[in-house]
């Protein structure tokens, strides 16, 4: 019988989400997990090619709708289920061609 432990450290649960959970849901780990320079309690899970926006196009009349917000909902659910309170948001950033 394999024993499981509940994670109680924020960085460890974020690492778990950005690797294991991401890989289970999207077929690969997130590209990176970064800590905000401005706010010590702010972290970013970075995915340069999110699966959700690869196969979904948003009609122009839907404005700023982000299909990637679905991913932030999953992250919020995992963190809440693990006992961590968090405000999770999705942000899309256009990269330059050479990035």
What does this 3D model show about the protein?
With 99 residues, the protein is mainly α. The protein has 3 helices and 2 strands; from the N terminus they run αββαα. It has a two-stranded antiparallel sheet. The chain is globular, with a radius of gyration of 15 Å. The N and C termini lie far apart (46 Å). The mean pLDDT is 85.
Q: How would you summarize this macromolecular structure in one to three sentences?
A:
The chain has 99 residues and is mostly helical. The protein is 34% helix and 8% strand.
Give the topology, please:
Elements: H1 10-26, E1 32-35, E2 43-46, H2 51-54, H3 69-81
Antiparallel strand pairs: 1-2
Strand adjacency order, main sheet: 1-2
Radius of gyration: 15 Å
Mean pLDDT: 85
Largest beta-sheet characterization: 2 strands, antiparallel
Cα(first) to Cα(last) distance is: 46 Å
Order of helices and strands: HEEHH
**β content, as a range?**
5-15%
Overall body shape: globular
Low-pLDDT segments: none
Helix content: 25-40%
Number of strands: 2
Label the structural class. Answer: mainly alpha
Helix count from the secondary structure assignment:
3
């Amino acid at each position: 019988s394999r024993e499981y432990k509940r994670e109680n450290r924020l960085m460890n649960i974020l690492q778990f989400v950005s690797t294991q959970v991401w890989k289970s849901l999207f077929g690969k780990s997130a590209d990176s997990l970064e800590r905000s320079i401005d706010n010590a309690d702010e972290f970013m899970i970075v995915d340069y090619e999110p699966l959700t926006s690869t196969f979904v196009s948003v009609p122009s009349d839907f404005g700023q709708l982000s299909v990637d917000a679905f991913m932030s909902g999953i992250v919020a659910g995992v963190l809440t289920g693990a006992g961590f309170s968090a405000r999770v948001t999705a942000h899309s950033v256009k990269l330059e061609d050479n990035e």
